[in-house]
Write a structure and sequence with these properties.
- By secondary structure, the protein is α/β, with parallel strands linked by helices.
- The protein has two domains: about 260 residues, Spore Coat Polysaccharide Biosynthesis Protein SpsA, Chain A (Alpha-Beta Complex), CATH 3.90.550.10; about 80 residues, no CATH class.
- The protein is built from eleven helices and 18 strands.
- Strands 3, 5, 6, 7, 8, 9 and 10 form a seven-stranded mixed beta sheet that branches. A five-stranded mixed beta sheet has the order 12-13-15-17-18. The chain has a two-stranded parallel sheet with strand order 1-2.
- A hairpin with a 2-residue loop joins strand 12 and strand 13.
- The model has no long low-confidence stretch (mean pLDDT about 95).
């Protein structure tokens, strides 16, 4: 499981010291807590590894307290997901893991965990021969320009997988409508099943930006030999930060997908989160005390502060409150929230980052 990132589109709730997976954005648990509970349906805690950042060691260990036996890998530096996934694969091999491993983001929303677990098991069977990398593809329900899309054939191959023919990352809304109408595209959930040796082979062959720096250390780990933290940190510092999607999956011809019919969201922005918050007087809210809404409709109201929120005669806004910051944003500008972090950094407001 991958738990880290900056989560800049969820400022002010998501900060450097406590990013998106560690925040109780919806429901009664953090997104990381929800993911850990969901994975219990496919593997016990002792077979779960969380990859996080050294800077997030304290909140990650706190999240794992109720999951005895779960393993924690702390990256020396943030280098995106390609390095993190290759490291987890080498670690699994070095500990004698003989089988398929799953890679799951820790900050997604899934309505029906049992349907998710069934899809994971199907994907694991497709990946079992070690010949391919298998993604969970989600049946799209709308032409969403915020997601990545996978072009697949209409029918599965003999092994039960769908050969991924093309990746389309965050298309325009018009193109997303065209992709949806074709019936040939799935959303890319980012969840991956593969044998660890296949992950390492594909990383070595497709991603020299990662392998040239980390390869010697990862190979040693995969053989069960020790690698010092100092050596790993030096290698990590030389890695080009790349996502696993870009560095490996989009370059490989061994990528398959299985269809996931369960409701899913990557909760990429405040407006996307709003769809999963409680409806309240024509708005969606997650706060206490309940907001006072007078002629206000279609707003998203989220607060972690024990303060009264009042909206009068406004619509289509994001109103996000923490103890030290207030964000008011038009819903159709939700993707621009990430720019706030850069603006605050330029003003040296480190206490708000």
């Amino acid at each position: 499981m991958l738990a880290g990132g900056a989560g800049t589109r969820f400022w002010p709730a998501s900060r450097r010291a406590l990013p998106k997976p560690f925040v109780n954005l919806v429901g009664t648990r953090t997104l990381l807590g929800d993911t850990l509970e969901r994975l219990r349906l496919v593997a016990p805690a002792r077979r779960t590894t969380v990859v996080s950042s050294a800077s997030l060691a304290r909140p990650t260990r706190s999240a794992l307290r109720g999951h005895r036996g779960a393993r924690l890998l702390l990256e020396p530096l943030a280098r995106n997901t390609a390095a993190a996934i290759a490291w987890a694969a080498a670690d699994a091999l070095g500990r004698g893991h003989d089988g398929v491993i799953g890679v799951f983001p820790a900050d997604h929303w899934i309505a029906k965990p049992t349907a998710f677990a069934a899809c994971v098991r199907r994907a694991a069977r497709v990946a079992a021969d070690g010949e391919c990398l298998v993604l969970l593809g989600i049946e799209p329900t709308r032409p969403d320009p915020a997601y990545g899309y996978l072009r697949v054939p209409r029918r599965a191959d003999a092994g039960g997988g769908l050969a991924v023919e093309r990746f389309v990352e965050k298309p325009s809304r018009a193109r997303a409508r065209s992709l949806l109408a074709s019936g040939r595209y799935l959303w890319n959930s980012g969840a991956l099943l593969a044998r660890p040796e296949r992950i390492l082979t594909e990383t070595r062959e497709q991603a020299p930006e990662v392998w040239d720096a980390l390869g010697p250390a990862l190979s040693r780990m995969a053989e069960g030999r020790a690698v010092s933290r100092t050596r790993l940190s030096r290698a990590w510092a030389r890695v080009t930060p790349l996502s696993f999607d870009f560095a490996v999956l989009e370059r490989s011809r061994r990528v398959r997908a299985v269809r996931g019919g369960f409701a899913w969201s990557d909760l990429g922005s405040w407006d996307a989160l709003g769809e999963h918050l409680s409806p309240y007087e024509g708005n969606h809210v997650h706060c206490s005390p309940e907001p006072l809404l007078l002629g206000a409709t279609r707003n998203v109201v989220w607060s972690s502060a024990d303060r009264q929120v009042v909206l009068i005669g406004v619509r289509d806004l994001l109103v996000i409150q923490t103890t030290d910051a207030l964000l008011v944003c038009a819903k159709d500008r939700a993707q621009d929230v990430r720019e706030v972090v850069g603006a605050l950094a330029r003003r040296h407001r480190e206490e708000l980052l």
